[in-house]
Amino acid sequence: MIISERIFKLMDEKGVSQLQLAEKTGIAQSTISDWKRKKTNPSSDKIMAICDVLDVSPFELLQDTIPSKGAGEVDFLIASEGTAEYAVLKKMEKLNKKTKEELTNYVKGLRNKK
């Protein structure tokens, strides 16, 4: 599935019309229409605006373009600045290797405590 097809699928799922997407992103409605008609993709500078309106991450928008064969599991997470997760990750990245391993083991222990 190409990116524009994924956009239209998400628009349909979320009940967003081409006109609404155009108004909320500032992208001309004719441009959005061209994506569908000509089976072209938006330029990269439009992706974040589209993601904001459709309330998806860039990964969620682009995920269907990643080949499933051999792609494996996702090896990254997205944490928004200002969240507790973001704060923990920022602090963790400053730790030395040994302390990171200790923290990882501690978290594993917490998970097993259920």
Automatic annotation (TrEMBL):
The UniProt entry, under Gene3D superfamilies, shows: lambda repressor-like DNA-binding domains
Q: Per its UniProt entry, which superkingdom is the organism in?
A: Bacteria
Q: Where are the transmembrane segments?
A: none
Looking at the record, the residues that make up the HTH cro/C1-type domain are 9-61
Keyword rRNA processing found: no
Q: Which GO terms describe its molecular function?
A: DNA binding
The alphabetical list of record keywords is: DNA-binding
Protein name as annotated? Helix-turn-helix
Organism of provenance: Pseudobutyrivibrio ruminis
